[in-house]
């Protein structure tokens, strides 16, 4: 049998950067107007959900969405 040679791994020098972590890529930040509109819509839904308490959740969402589209609190309707 022929003698085998083994290579030993030499540690690589790092330039100060760490190891990149695997996972989801970071989401792009939404603009502030979209974020503000979403917050206002969620608050509107929460405040007005009692109007449709006799409906199931899915139907409540549909009705609240219709109301939101015509609401004066909706930023799209304020322009």
From TrEMBL:
UniProt-listed InterPro entries:
HMG_box_dom_sf (IPR036910)
Region Disordered, annotated ranges:
1-35, 50-79
Q: Where is the composition biased (Low complexity)?
A: 1-14
Q: Where is the composition biased (Basic residues)?
A: 21-33
Q: Which domain of life is it from?
A: Eukaryota
Q: Where is the composition biased (Basic and acidic residues)?
A: 50-70
Q: Which SUPFAM superfamilies match?
A: HMG-box
Q: What is the name attached to this protein's record?
A: HMG box domain-containing protein
Native source species: Neocucurbitaria cava
Which lineage do the record's taxonomy fields give for this organism?
Eukaryota, Fungi, Dikarya, Ascomycota, Pezizomycotina
């Amino acid at each position: 049998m022929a003698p085998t040679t083994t290579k030993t791994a030499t540690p690589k020098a790092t330039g100060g950067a760490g190891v990149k972590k695997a996972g989801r890529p970071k989401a792009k930040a939404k603009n502030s107007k979209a974020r503000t509109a979403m917050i206002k819509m969620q608050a509107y839904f929460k405040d007005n959900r009692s109007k449709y308490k006799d409906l199931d959740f899915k139907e409540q969402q549909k009705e609240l969405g219709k109301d939101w589209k015509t609401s004066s609190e909706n930023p799209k309707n304020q322009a």
